[in-house]
C-alpha cells in the first residue's frame, strides 16, 4: 500500500500541472501510512431501516486507499450534497483524497466527504490505508501550486496540530470500534490469568502459588485474522495458516462458524473443537 500510495500521489501531482511530479521528492518522500481494519456488525434494527456504520467524515490523510468487501455501503457526497454509492467491484480499490492533500494543493484537490451505510444484517469488513505527511511537517501549498492569479486559502500549519485538533473534535467517532476491542482485551486478560492458574494447579498441588512470582507481569495482544480463500479452494482445500506453534504462554482463539482450525495430536491432524 505504501508503494501504491506513492504512485497515486505522483499521478495526482502530474494532474496538477507539468513538472509537478518533481515536487514528490521534496514534499512527500517522508510520508508514512497506517492501516485501519474495520469490522462492522449491524444492529438488529438494520432490518427495518438502514443505519450509518461510520458517519460522514473526511480523511486526515494525503490519500487513503480503501478495500471494502462485497457487502458494500461506502458512499461519497457529490458537490451538490447527494450521496452516491461506491459499489464494491472485484479487484478494485477506492482512493480518497484526504484533508492534507486538499490543504497542500490550495483546495485544487477536494477531500472527499464519505460515510458507510449498513443496509443488511450482515457483517461488513473493510481496510483503509491512510497515507500521511510526517507529524512535524509544515503544510504550505507551494507558490507554483497556488498559481500567480490565485489567493492562498490556507495558512501554514503543522500536520500534528491539525490531527490533534480533529481528534479532539471527533472524540467518540471511532470509539465504538476501539471500546469493543479494549473491553475484549480486558476480558481476555482476566480469562488468561484464570486459565494459567488452573494449568498450574494441574501441574502440581500448590503450583498456583507460582502465579504471582512468575506470571503476574504477563501481557497480551490481539490478532484479528480475516482469511480470503483463493479461487482454487473450490477444487481442493488450502492452508490459510500453515502449521505452527504459538509464541505465547497461552492463546485464546475465537473462530467464527466457518471452522478450519486444526490441531495435531501426536502426528495426526484433528479438527479444532468449535467451542474453543
Ligand atoms: O469502511 C469503509 O469502507 C471506509 C472506512 C473509512 O472511510 C475510514 O476508515 O476512514
Ligand atoms: Fe474515511
UniProtKB/TrEMBL annotation:
The entry's keywords: Iron, Metal-binding, Oxidoreductase
Single GO molecular function: metal ion binding
Superkingdom as given in the UniProt entry: Eukaryota
SUPFAM superfamilies assigned: Clavaminate synthase-like (SSF51197)
Database matches in Gene3D superfamilies: B-lactam Antibiotic, Isopenicillin N Synthase, Chain (2.60.120.330)
Domain Fe2OG dioxygenase, chain residue ranges per copy: 31-134
InterPro entries noted in UniProt: IPNS-like_FE2OG_OXY, IPNS-like_sf, Iron_ascorbate_oxido_reductase, Oxoglu/Fe-dep_dioxygenase_dom
Signal peptide (residue range): none
Record flagged with keyword Oxidoreductase: yes
Pfam families: 2OG-FeII_Oxy (PF03171)
Entry similarity comment: Belongs to the iron/ascorbate-dependent oxidoreductase family.
Protein name as annotated: Fe2OG dioxygenase domain-containing protein
Amino acid at each position: 500500500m505504501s508503494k501504491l500510495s506513492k504512485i497515486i500521489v505522483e499521478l495526482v501531482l502530474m494532474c496538477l500541472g507539468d513538472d509537478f511530479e518533481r515536487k514528490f521528492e521534496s514534499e512527500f518522500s517522508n510520508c508514512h501510512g497506517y492501516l485501519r481494519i474495520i469490522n462492522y456488525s449491524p444492529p438488529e434494527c438494520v432490518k427495518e431501516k438502514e443505519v450509518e456504520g461510520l458517519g460522514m467524515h473526511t480523511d486526515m490523510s494525503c490519500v487513503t486507499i480503501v478495500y471494502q468487501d462485497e457487502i458494500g455501503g461506502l458512499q461519497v457526497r457529490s458537490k451538490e450534497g447527494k450521496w452516491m454509492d461506491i459499489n464494491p467491484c472485484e479487484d478494485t480499490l477506492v482512493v480518497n483524497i484526504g484533508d492534507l492533500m486538499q490543504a497542500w494543493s490550495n483546495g485544487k484537490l477536494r477531500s472527499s466527504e464519505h460515510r458507510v451505510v449498513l443496509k443488511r444484517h450482515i457483517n461488513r469488513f473493510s481496510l483503509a490505508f491512510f497515507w500521511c505527511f510526517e507529524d512535524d511537517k509544515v503544510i504550505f501549498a507551494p507558490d507554483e501550486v497556488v498559481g500567480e492569479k490565485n489567493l492562498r486559502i490556507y495558512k501554514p500549519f503543522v500536520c500534528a496540530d491539525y490531527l490533534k485538533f480533529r481528534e479532539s473534535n471527533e472524540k467518540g467517532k471511532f470509539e465504538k470500534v476501539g471500546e469493543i476491542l479494549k473491553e475484549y482485551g480486558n476480558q481476555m486478560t482476566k480469562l488468561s490469568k484464570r486459565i494459567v492458574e488452573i494449568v498450574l494447579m494441574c501441574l502440581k498441588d500448590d503450583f498456583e502459588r507460582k502465579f504471582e512470582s512468575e506470571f503476574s507481569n504477563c501481557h497480551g495482544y490481539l490478532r484479528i485474522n480475516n482469511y480470503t480463500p483463493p479461487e482454487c479452494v473450490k477444487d481442493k482445500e488450502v492452508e490459510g495458516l500453515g502449521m505452527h506453534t504459538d509464541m505465547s504462554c497461552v492463546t485464546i482463539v475465537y473462530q467464527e462458524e466457518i471452522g478450519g482450525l486444526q490441531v495435531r495430536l501426536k502426528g495426526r491432524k484433528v479438527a479444532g473443537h468449535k467451542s474453543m
